[in-house]
Amino acid sequence: MDREPAVAGRFYPGDAARLARDVTEMLGPPAPAAPAVGVLAPHAGYMYSGGVAGATYARVDVPQRAVVLCPNHTGRGAAVALWPDGGWWTPLGRVPIDEPLSEALRSCPAVEEDRAAHLREHSLEVQLPFLQVQLRPVAGVFV
After folding, report:
1. Are 68 and 57 in contact (CB under 8 A)?
2. CB 5 within 8 A of CB 94
3. In 3-state terms, the chain is what percent helix, strand and coil (to 5)?
């Protein structure tokens, strides 16, 4: 099952061409990128934190596989909720779930498979366009 965008057009542009242009501008000119085990980036609407998120992602050598962890602002669903399969859509296209990695994370006792926790949550969704622009294709696990 795929997750459709919940905040496109509100937290970030809903038009693909504008979104790609805005994210590219927020990433800035090419900069030396370094490998990272983890990255902490803001997740508010782009008008508030897109510049900082762009500066962060611009300096990271984005891997082919990523685990994206974000808070649950809505309070819906499990505290540590995993979207188990399918993909996530943004105006830039579909980001597939890395299903073998997702399956491995299910063995963690704190993680629960729970789509409801993600349906209206923005924090993870606003990160994906940066990953999509930095690296196509990208696969991930979204918790």
Report:
1. no
2. no
3. 30, 20, 50
pLDDT digits (tens, 9 = 90+) for 31-89: 889 998 899 999 999 999 999 999 999 999 888 888 888 888 888 999 999 999 999 99
Domains of the chain: 2-142 (3.40.830.10)
pLDDT single digits (tens) 52-63: 999 999 999 888
Closest CA to 123 of 36, 53, 21: 53
Pairing mode, strands 93-96 and 87-90? antiparallel
How deeply is 46 buried, as exposed, middle or buried, from its count of CB atoms within 10 A (0-12, 13-18, 19+)? buried
DSSP β-bridge partners for residue 3: 88
